[in-house]
Amino acid sequence: MTAIPTAQQQLDFIAKIQRLFAEGEFSATYKYALLIALTEIAVESDVQDGRELLVSNRQIADKFIELYWKQTVQYVSGLPETKPGILVQNHGTQAAIVNAILSFKKSYSLSTSPLRAAKDHNEYRELQGRVAIVVSAQPLNFLQNYGGVNHSFIYARQKGQIMLLPGVVYCLRTFQGLIQQLARARWVEYIKGHKDNQAIVGQAGDLESFMFESARTNLTTLGRLLKKLDGHHCFYCGETMQSNDVDHFIPFSAYPRDLGDNFVLAHASCNRSKSDNLASIQHLENWLNRKQKKQDALQEISHEAGIVFDAQASKSIAHWAYSLALQADGSAWVKSKDFVPISQNYILALAH
């Protein structure tokens, strides 16, 4: 086991990240996407100490496609002074990755298809390769530049891959919330501030939801399918429910990525009460048992609803979330107004 970074090393890392945002050049949105991609890869890995991590350019490209796929449909603000359009992501011509995804969608009649359908397509690997070339030539080359100097503090370049340096995975996992919040906020600011987006966006205030969250139609479909699989009962309280409301088991606010087996049916009241809290041990064990026993069905449902399914990633995310909460002496939600301390038992449950 490799030693984790010291408190000072962690502070130095996040200070450099902040300098990157403050002093780096952002002529396109690629660097924001790269920071989000790297934090997700770190959280979804099995590295929990100070070890380095090899990451292929194709892995990063896959994350880029997932991030930009949602943004290659027309944004419709509904405001009278605007017109529908695809958001411009680059100063000058449209970003190459956006054009590559648009071309792929058009060539294979996938314009209205969810990303899940695209990943199943025979030519998806070709798209992944095209995006990997752009990622390698642009954001991977320039992300670590700030103040006019290259600071190789996140990764070292290798042929077809990068090496996340010792301690970096740990720091990315620790500061995931801050880094993603900064990257998303700056990305939205970039889109709003781009002159070519003014006629599309106007004074709209829902850009972040459009850019980063699953479509409500997908979640409606998912809820209907989950009811067929799990029955007409709230996952948390067990009582009968008529609606198809779904809840992120690991809160979206803690980890803003939609994965199929992270969704459960929940009463509106249970959903509101749980809010952004982690669930208690009995709910966690039920979730883990459900993942194990119904994995194939959950995968099929996710595909039908157009939502990405990755059983290992969702479990790694849960392990990360509960580990951070344990370190912070956090509490877990049992039911309305009922919380219990998070203990090592949660981590042991996730280790099996």
How is the secondary structure organized here?
Layout: H1 7-23, H2 30-43, E1 53-56, H3 57-69, H4 96-107, H5 115-119, H6 124-137, H7 139-142, E2 145-146, E3 149-150, E4 155-158, E5 161-164, H8 168-174, H9 176-193, H10 198-201, H11 207-212, H12 216-230, E6 246-248, E7 263-265, H13 268-274, H14 281-293, H15 295-305, H16 311-327, E8 331-335, E9 338-341, H17 344-351
Antiparallel strand pairs: 1-5, 2-3, 4-5, 6-7, 8-9
Helix pairs in contact: 2-3, 2-8, 2-9, 3-6, 4-6, 12-15, 14-17, 16-17
Pfam families: HNH
Keywords: Endonuclease, Hydrolase, Nuclease
InterPro entries: HNH, HNH_nuc
Can you describe this structure?
The protein is mainly alpha-helical and 352 residues long. The chain has two domains: 7-212, no CATH class; 216-351, no CATH class. 53% of the residues lie in helices and 9% in strands. The chain is built from 17 helices and nine strands. It has helices at 7-23, 30-43, 57-69, 96-107, 115-119, 124-137, 139-142, 168-174, 176-193, 198-201, 207-212, 216-230, 268-274, 281-293, 295-305, 311-327, 344-351, and strands at residues 53-56, 145-146, 149-150, 155-158, 161-164, 246-248, 263-265, 331-335, 338-341. The strands form four sheets. Strands 1-5-4 form a three-stranded antiparallel sheet. Strands 2-3 form a two-stranded antiparallel sheet. Helix 4 packs antiparallel against helix 6. The chain is globular, with a radius of gyration of 21 Å. It comes from Chitinibacter bivalviorum. InterPro entries: HNH, HNH_nuc. Keywords: Endonuclease, Hydrolase, Nuclease.
